[in-house]
Specification:
about 160 residues; Aminopeptidase
Length: about 160
């Protein structure tokens, strides 16, 4: 049975599982190298985990199979910093559930923001298919070759 669990802190073995999920998900897209993904994980994801940014994991029998990492953005939005799901569990609606799980965690938010690489048409197609719209949102930590998306909660 697959469950969603919000984690505030993580053990070193859980971080290793998260890393393995991240590598598997992004290497399957055949766009990036394991070296560049490892660097990204240590420079972008580990600091967010240490800051205890909101993190939801997908578990299948206590094994992490996916995750979404958020950052509070202003008073009424969250930034979706990262999401990854093992390839065997993709295309089952879990990415959509992970993305929107933040609305259950914080019912007062109105918007989810994210950026993705211009070259990552796979991610763009996914986010557009679940209702995200291109926006002028820019994250200060990402270069100009990224585009913004946002999802506004319906009233």
């Amino acid at each position: 049975m697959i469950t969603f669990v919000w984690l505030k802190t993580m053990s070193s073995s859980q971080i290793k599982e998260l890393f393995d999920v991240f590598l598997s998900a992004f290497l399957a897209q055949d766009r990036l190298t394991s070296e560049s993904l490892t660097t990204y994980f240590h420079e972008k994801i580990i600091p967010r985990i240490k800051r205890e940014d909101p993190l939801v994991v997908l578990l299948n029998q206590d094994k992490i199979i996916g995750f979404a990492l958020f950052e509070k953005w202003g008073k009424s939005a969250y930034y979706l910093a990262e999401m990854a799901i093992l390839p065997a569990y993709q295309r089952k609606g879990l990415g959509k559930k992970l993305t929107f799980s933040v609305f259950d965690k914080d019912p007062f938010i109105q918007k989810i923001l994210l950026v993705t690489e211009i070259a990552n048409t796979w991610a763009q197609a996914f986010y557009e298919s679940i209702g995200f719209k291109r926006s002028c949102f820019v994250h200060p930590d990402y270069p100009i070759d990224f585009i913004g998306y946002e999802y506004a909660k319906e009233e």
